Automatic annotation (TrEMBL):
It is an enzyme of class 2 (transferase). Belongs to the glycogen phosphorylase family. This is Alpha-1,4 glucan phosphorylase. Keywords: Carbohydrate metabolism, Glycosyltransferase, Pyridoxal phosphate, Transferase. PROSITE patterns: PHOSPHORYLASE. It catalyses: [(1->4)-alpha-D-glucosyl](n) + phosphate = [(1->4)-alpha-D-glucosyl](n-1) + alpha-D-glucose 1-phosphate. Its EC number is 2.4.1.1. It comes from Rhodovulum iodosum. Transmembrane segments: none annotated. Gene3D superfamilies: Glycogen Phosphorylase B.
Length: 828
């Protein structure tokens, strides 16, 4: 497989070849024009940027479909096991650049657009993010979908086609304001509407016994309609399907009512039904226990299981074969209702014995836990489960009882205090349960699932997270990627551990100079962007210190801010002390209902305003809080970062994935021994990682110390000073008491031990100042991080799931000449 780039003669068509479909820029230009004309009905001279963007997307999608059909056909013919990834969230971001890069058509597209008098960057910038997720869990699902395709594993992703993704964040006088996200305002370019794939799903009602058989008499129904988005692999070798369900009314528009002038009532069924897939719940750590959320979880899970059984029964007639043909992954507990629903489909609807139905379902299902935070572990009131899903509540009781019979010594149940504990239910109904980093998996065994681990000692396994190198290195960091490919060839893109081959080149100055140049130019780009977008002038040679993630107390953005305030005061007191200039960059959304997190957002903005206005410290310290953090902003910030802030209270961050993206892009980590930080430090070497703070065990012990916060504040004047400034309203003169909630919490509770870890954090930051002053040494450490972080590829993670959990094989589309029989509907 080679991508042929001929010497560039002006206007000569650029050709790139993928497996038998030579695509020249001229072909692409014609295809773009054809779609603009016949799909969008626009004349070139009348077309807007977004018209051209959609036309280009359709032209690329055309080529993706061929690979898609070939992959589907190969999967069907091979009878191979399929993986089904059920997730409430897929934080996809943009798809145009990703598709171009994976099809190797970037140069051709660039040339075609230039021929049409257009600029590729303008077109790319026009695409809205598909923000169908909150944070880590959703983005992991998106990286996993791309890696499933790249390793050639036949798979479907199943989720919800929210009309409104994660809210847009705006700052009004430094406060977070949420606005509805409306990615569907513009025509979605990548999806195919599947009117022929729709399922009627029911809620409520009651269950009767009829001849010993339970019969569910639901009272409400809604239709789930499928929308498919092809997920293309690196080099277009394979393509899988992301199937997102949209809610529709069983009975549409009520004409009679309309004719009676009851206009709103006539539209009510439609509006009510669509509510289920209307909007993504913006919480990522606190379960709200809202009925609509449970409806959403059942809606997409039940539709997905129906679709999985429909596909299986189209190819097989022995239900007992199901576990060999379908591996169903539950992305956290959000689809955990899959356990009782699968039992209902096998037992109630297909007559399988109950115990066998439970065993068969368990053999298909596996569950990933992404958090140990008690408030994030879903517990549904039994009365709500009973009212909404009466038959499922019965089956949950049967499943729990069956587990009890088998485990007489057990001290655990899925039913407790009138609630259904979805973590325990998912564990009982899964043949494998995994954590997302080595530390997290061990903590699962010793804390939340200790009893279940005792009863099922071989059920919990670890699968440390990963990130896709196509989006997070090749696409986001062109300069670094070009250097890597020039040095070790292009194999690293789908075999990331090849990055280790870079290390022998660290000896020659040439390589490190180019490495440093890539970082320097990425930082210059970001500095220009900050100047234009944020009207913030920063020193592009300063240390770019970046903390980007959801705002949460356990992620300790407020500890970073306290250090920032203390540093500012130290610089102000002694500006000529030879400070390492720093730019502190924050970005992240707070869940709308999370008051403390929103106060942290407000405080960061108010501190930034004061510090950035200080002429004395301006040359040495600037603070920026970038609004509306999303996938696209992460792609812009990570390649320009020098320092990656991974400072969570040890034992709280299940893994982290931003930490991996930063390390791959040559940012050094300041972090605690938490989540995957532990494994990053092990692989890059402790000398190339700035560790600080208490371990998970020390955290538990410290929390037992009465007055631990006051003690720490007493012992550190800088901390005390920064807290006092906040408490006295130095950053909120218009409302001096505004942050008494924050300072009060930190001084008296400080559950996340911000105060007790502060001094160690401060000292680590000063070590970093010193290290950054020696740019050669710093760049060498940065390059080592890149070279030794290849293991954190999501390709490696997916291969782990395939081997240890799904027992699934990778397939290959048979050789050239077999691919492109377009037109034949091959989508199972
Ligand atoms: C019920 C509300 C809710 C919604 C989402 C609770 C919990 C969640 C997610 C599990 C939170 C989440 O995104 N967890 C993050 O998952 C990442 C992928 O595994 C990890 O890298 C992060 O450490 C973890 O916080």
């Amino acid at each position: 497989m080679t991508s042929m780039t001929v010497g560039r003669v002006a206007n000569a068509p650029v050709a790139s070849a993928l497996e038998g479909d030579l695509v020249t820029s001229a072909d692409l230009r014609d295809s773009i024009l054809r779609h603009l004309t016949y799909d969008l009905g626009k004349e070139p001279e009348m077309a807007e940027i977004h018209d051209w963007r959609i036309a280009l997307s359709l032209a690329l999608r055309e080529r993706i479909v061929d690979h898609w059909f070939a992959s589907m056909r190969t999967a069907r013919h091979s009878g191979a096991k399929r993986v089904y990834y059920l997730s409430m969230e897929f934080l996809i971001g943009r798809l145009l650049e990703d598709s171009m890069v994976n099809l190797g058509l970037e140069e051709a597209a660039d040339r075609a657009l230039t021929d049409l008098g257009l600029n590729l960057q303008d077109i790319l910038a026009d695409e809205p993010d598909a923000a169908l997720g909150n944070g880590g869990l959703g983005r992991l699902a998106a990286c996993f979908m791309e890696s499933l395709a790249t390793v050639g594993c036949p798979a479907f992703g199943y989720g919800i086609r929210y009309e409104h993704g994660l809210f847009k964040q705006r700052f009004v006088q430094g406060r977070q304001v949420e606005e509805p996200e409306d990615w569907l305002q513009q025509r979605p370019a990548w999806e195919f509407e599947r009117s022929d794939i729709a399922f009627k799903l029911c809620f409520g009602g009651e269950v009767s016994e009829d001849g010993g058989k339970a019969v569910w008499h639901p009272e409400e129904a809604v239709v789930a309609k499928a929308y498919d988005t092809p997920i293309i692999s690196w080099q277009g070798r394979w393509a899988n399907t992301l199937r997102l369900w949209s809610a529709r009314p069983l009975h549409g528009f009520d004409l009679e009512r309309f004719n009676r002038g009851e206009f709103a009532a006539a539209a009510e069924p439609e509006a009510l039904a669509r509510t289920i897939s209307r909007v993504l719940y913006p919480d990522d750590t606190t379960e709200q226990g809202k009925e609509l959320r449970l409806k959403q979880e059942f809606f997409f899970t039940a539709a997905s299981l129906r679709d999985i059984l429909r596909r299986f029964e189209a190819e097989h007639d022995n239900l007992r074969l199901l576990p060999q043909k379908a591996a169903i992954q539950l992305n956290d507990t959000h689809p955990a209702i899959a356990g009782p629903e699968m039992v209902r489909l096998l037992h109630d609807e297909r007559g399988m014995e109950l115990d066998e139905a439970i065993v068969t379902a368990r053999a298909c299902l596996s569950y990933t836990n992404h958090t140990l935070m008690p408030e994030a572990l879903e517990r549904w009131p039994e009365h709500l489960m009973h009212r909404l899903l009466p038959r499922h509540m019965q089956l949950i009781e049967r499943i729990d009882a069956a587990h009890a019979v088998k485990q007489p010594t057990r001290q655990v149940s899925a039913l407790e205090h009138g609630e259904v504990k979805m973590g325990e239910l998912a564990f009982m109904m899964a043949h494998k349960v995994n954590g997302v980093s080595a530390l997290h998996t061990e903590l699962m065994k010793s804390t939340v699932f200790a009893e279940l681990h005792r009863l099922h000692p071989d059920r919990i396994v670890n699968q440390t997270n990963g990130v896709t190198p196509r989006r997070w290195v090749l696409s986001a960091n062109r300069r670094l990627s070009a250097l890597i490919t020039d040095t070790i060839g292009e194999g690293w893109v789908d075999d990331l551990e090849q990055l280790e081959q870079l290390e022998p080149y660290f000896g020659d100055a040439g390589f490190l100079d180019r490495y440093a140049a890539a970082k320097r130019e990425n930082k210059a780009d970001l500095s220009n962007w900050l100047a234009t977008e944020m009207d913030l002038k920063v020193d592009p040679t300063a240390l770019f210190d970046v903390q980007i993630k959801r705002i949460h107390e356990y992620k300790r953005q407020h500890m970073n801010l306290l250090e920032t305030i203390a540093l500012w005061k130290e610089i102000a007191a002694n500006p000529d002390a030879g400070w390492t200039p720093r730019v502190k960059i924050f970005a992240g959304k707070a869940a709308p209902g999370y008051v403390f997190a929103k106060e942290i957002v407000h405080l960061i903005n108010e501190v930034a305003a004061v510090i950035n206005a200080d002429p004395v410290t301006a040359p040495y310290l600037k603070v920026a809080f970038l609004p509306n953090y999303n996938v696209t902003l992460a792609e812009r910030l990570i390649p320009a970062a020098d320092l990656s802030e991974q400072i969570s209270t040890a034992g709280k961050e299940a893994s982290g994935t931003g930490n991996m993206k930063f390390a791959l892009n040559g940012a050094l980590t300041v972090g605690t021994l938490d989540g995957a930080n532990v494994e990053i430090r092990e692989r890059v070497g402790e000398e190339n990682f700035f560790l600080f703070g208490m371990t998970a065990d020390e955290v538990i012990a410290r929390r037992e110390v009465p007055g631990h916060a006051a003690q720490a504040i007493e012992a550190d004047a800088r901390l005390a000073g920064a807290l006092a400034d906040i408490g006295e309203g130095r950053f909120s003169p218009d409302d001096p008491g505004r942050y008494h909630g924050v300072t009060g919490n930190l001084s008296h509770h400080d559950y996340f031990l911000v105060c007790s870890d502060f001094t160690a954090y401060w000292e680590a930051q000063r070590r970093i100042d010193a290290a950054f002053a020696d740019q050669n040494a710093w760049m060498r450490m940065a390059a080592i991080n890149t070279a030794r972080s290849g293991w954190f590829s999501s390709d490696r993670a997916i291969r782990g799931y395939m081997a240890d959990i799904w027992n699934a094989e990778a397939l290959e589309v048979p050789g050239p000449g077999d691919v492109l029989h377009s037109g034949r509907q091959a989508l199972g």
